[in-house]
Amino acid sequence: MSKYILAIDQGTTSSRALLFDREGTPISVGRQEFKQHFPADGWVEHDASEIWQTTLSCCHVAMSEAGAEANDIICIGITNQRETTIVWDRKTGEPISNAIVWQDRRTSDYCDSLREIGHSEVIQNKTGLLLDPYFSATKLRWILENVPDARTRAENGELAFGTVDSFLLWKLTDGKSHFTDATNASRTMLFNIAEQRWDSELLKMFDIPAAVLPEVKDCAADFGNSTADFFGAAIPITGMIGDQQSAAFGQGCFANGSAKSTYGTGCFLLLNTGEQIVKSSNKLLSTVAYRLANKTCYAIEGSIFMAGATIQWLRDELKLIATAEESEQLARETADDLKVYLVPAFTGLGAPYWDTNARGSIFGMTRDTGVKEIVTAGLMSACYQTKDLVEAISADGASLNSLKVDGGMANNNFVTQKLADLLDCEVQRPTITETTALGAAYIAGLQAGVFSSLEEITQKWQLDEAFEPTKDQSWRDTQYSGWNAAVKKTRTQE
């Protein structure tokens, strides 16, 4: 009997692959970072071919570490950085340009022009999204407009578009499968989330030919089989889901009102809203949490562009730390009432501000400000930004009694404690913090019959540690007001 599920977790700064057993326990992992390209101010690109090669390499490493062969693997699940846009040649499978990453802001002016002529409301009503360069539609349009012959070739059916999930699926199946799932489709700004279809009015608005689009399936579905050449035998691909939705799935956030926050490159808080699409009045996003058996569950989401990426910047660019792990000890040596604020608006500010032109800043430095204060301010910025999201959720009429956390920064006890202190609620860290990959494994396993129900998956969730608030309201108010003042000075628009 085959015994493993292979979960591909393709992220913004690294590709990963994990093998899980039938109980959902991680057995082995392959991980490889890849190059970030910044060709102009506000531009962020990846080499899509490098994404594919690192992903394939990670799969081989994970299989090798576990001593697994293809016939040991039941199925493959894919989760991915969302919104990142790739266009490739249908005959060769080769990308026609670099991938334009979700963080990229090059289409800001175009978004402004659409906003000026009054398209914002129809976009939000149909997609649940705010008109912003973050999402795929304007990135896809930019490629069609700026890569020679791209538009003509797209209209002739020679090119395919996809988010990273679709591209990896195409490569794994050697061009036999051009699909995406409802969660990734819901992040393109071309998908009507109420009607669960590509929207012809939006395609016309963004001048996108329908011929480039993938077919949209449930998250758990038969997506095709990997080509035998890659792993020694064909393996069914039975799950696809965007990374933040996957983390929520891995955390067992199936009940209306349950919430998780993931601290990876960015930070993303998802609150399950069940069968109801909740339209935010406070610049949060309505999105698809998952779709199973043609039944859609929705979520409200707050998106922060820089979380772990801030610590990566402190490590790689400023050289203040050698490893991310060093940050926790430095923070513990720093005064608890730190008045230094780092606003990591390196690619603008996400929710709830959506200020494209804002740029990173540090406030409150004095002559005795040193490495530990700046590093601590970087860690705290993820906590303050989460507080921003929770305040917006509260203003939309929802409340958090507790918050499940995951991602790399969730292993930092300083961060998780400060989250509890700032949010004034319990913060729960699960035993398995690889919840993004776990969600993909669960999704794929549901389709393959390894798991029987959402109830079974819920029962598998285990608490590692719960963090309770230790600070009073006065401390919260003082620290958060300092953050708000710093953000106000950073913003370029109200």
Architecture overview:
By secondary structure, this protein is of the alpha/beta class. The protein is globular and about 60 Å long. A 7-stranded mixed β-sheet has the order 16-17-15-14-20-21-22, with helices on both faces. It has a 5-stranded mixed β-sheet with strand order 3-2-1-5-13, with helices on both faces. A two-stranded antiparallel sheet has the order 4-7. The N and C termini lie far apart (59 Å). It has helices at 48-66, 108-116, 120-127, 136-146, 150-155, 164-172, 182-185, 200-206, 228-231, 243-250, 308-316, 326-332, 371-395, 413-423, 435-448, 454-460, 473-490; strands at 4-10, 14-21, 26-33, 45-46, 73-80, 86-89, 99-100, 159-162, 179-181, 191-192, 197-198, 215-217, 237-242, 259-263, 267-274, 285-292, 295-304, 341-343, 361-363, 402-406, 426-430, 463-467. Helix 11 runs antiparallel to helix 13 (371-395) and helix 12 packs across helix 13 (371-395). It is built from 17 helices and 22 strands. It has 2 domains: 4-243, ATPase, nucleotide binding domain (Nucleotidyltransferase, domain 5); 251-430 and 462-494, Nucleotidyltransferase, domain 5, CATH 3.30.420.
**Can you tell me the overall shape?**
globular
Fold-level CATH name of the largest domain: Nucleotidyltransferase, domain 5
Q: How large is the radius of gyration? A: 21 Å
Give the oligomeric state of the chains in this entry, treating copies of one chain as homo and distinct chains as hetero: single chain
Supply the number of structural domains.
2
What can be said about the biggest beta sheet? 7 strands, mixed
> What is the level-2 CATH architecture name of the largest domain?
2-Layer Sandwich
What value does the average pLDDT take?
Answer: 93
Q: Which range does the strand content fall in?
A: 15-25%
CATH level 4 superfamily of the largest domain? ATPase, nucleotide binding domain
Q: Helix share of residues?
A: 25-40%
